[in-house]
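Entry 12.
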Amino acid sequence: MKESFMNKKQIVAAVAITAAAAANVAIGVGTAVASTEDPTAGDRVRYVFISDVANNMSSNWFNADNDQSSLTTTHLPTYGKYTRSGSKLYSGTQSFTSRSTYQLTAAAIQTDGYYAECRVFVNGVQKSVNSATGRYALAVC
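Predicted 3D structure (tokens):
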């Protein structure tokens, strides 16, 4: 029964990340180089996932080819780099150089604890951040 419950949550996370990306798609002509507003091929993208626990449920993001990538379970290996209300948190990153002309940048993480946060950086500039609290919280950015 838990497996079915997790699958529904993974579907919700995938839909949420797709909707977030669709809302951020800019329609235009030409190629922007080193743009933080409209990332393209050659731009650096970094997703940061943060949680109050090391082992979490699913995470989703758009990769260097604009394909949606996901992990069914997400292990965050770094402890203490980020804090919230004085408590140390776990974190992990996904980074790449875009190979896509129109790079989508969106991510989501669902915690197995009580706090989830995601951040999106393009060329070192933070473009999006979102956090959520509560059991199995889902952050979408």
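Annotation: The helical segments are 2-24. The two ends are 29 Å apart (CA to CA).
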